[in-house]
Amino acid sequence: MARKTSRRAKAAPRRAAGRAGRKTPRRTAQGLRKAQAGTAADVKGPRKRVIADAKAALGAVPQMTSAEIEEAFRRLQAALPEPKGELEYINPFTLLVAVVLSAQATDAGVNKATPALFAVADTPEKMVALGEARVRDYIKTIGLFNTKAKNVVALSKLLLEQHGGEVPRTREALEALPGVGRKTANVVLNIAFGEPTIAVDTHIFRVGNRTGMAPGKTPFEVEMKLEQVVPDKYKRHAHHWLILHGRYVCLARRPSCEKCVIADLCKWPGKTVPH
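The structure assignment produced for this chain is given below.
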């Protein structure tokens, strides 16, 4: 004979489900507070970190779920509601030049050179008039300055000849300019024109693979994965949140997991999360 189930027993699973549903927001809020207090996670030793990064490079880190990615960006937004790029510029043209100059260089290094350059050449006309030799003098503290000076003057000429002196608003047109690749085009489209593009540099490539948010063996693969998984409402600023996270928290040699706001969501096996 089948045993009768009491009403109390029937209600137990519902109560448990209710408790589980209520725990998630509280737990994620606690995770954010712990991270901001500097107690988000403990980083393992150097050897284990190297092994963990090797797994990440091979795409062996588990994929974040869509719910985890949503929560990760909610926290990144809560921690920094209005993220900004760190390159200094005046207008779309000077932004384009600054991004071209930042290839294989730091934003800080570019920012030391460009104020004087932009003070005398903040339009394509002025840059062409300045000439390659004088541009080179202004940017000689930046790596690959010879090639970059040549590209800056050449792209300025093309802007005048083909775009009426304006920076084009399409990736194809931008990538046709000297010294402009996909990453540079994405940065300009995002910052100058508000497009929800994600420029994958070394920082975003590292964050995408380490966290399991967007595993990929090439920057393009990581970019395409991020295009798929980042919720639409976060895409406008996703580029800045991820690059700043990689630059100041998820560092290459020794990430600062102790102050990471998404440590408990991150899949990187090189750290432990206290419970």
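Interim note for the steering committee: The first strand starts at residue 42 and ends at 43. Residues 92-193 form a domain with the Endonuclease III; domain 1 fold (CATH 1.10.340.30).
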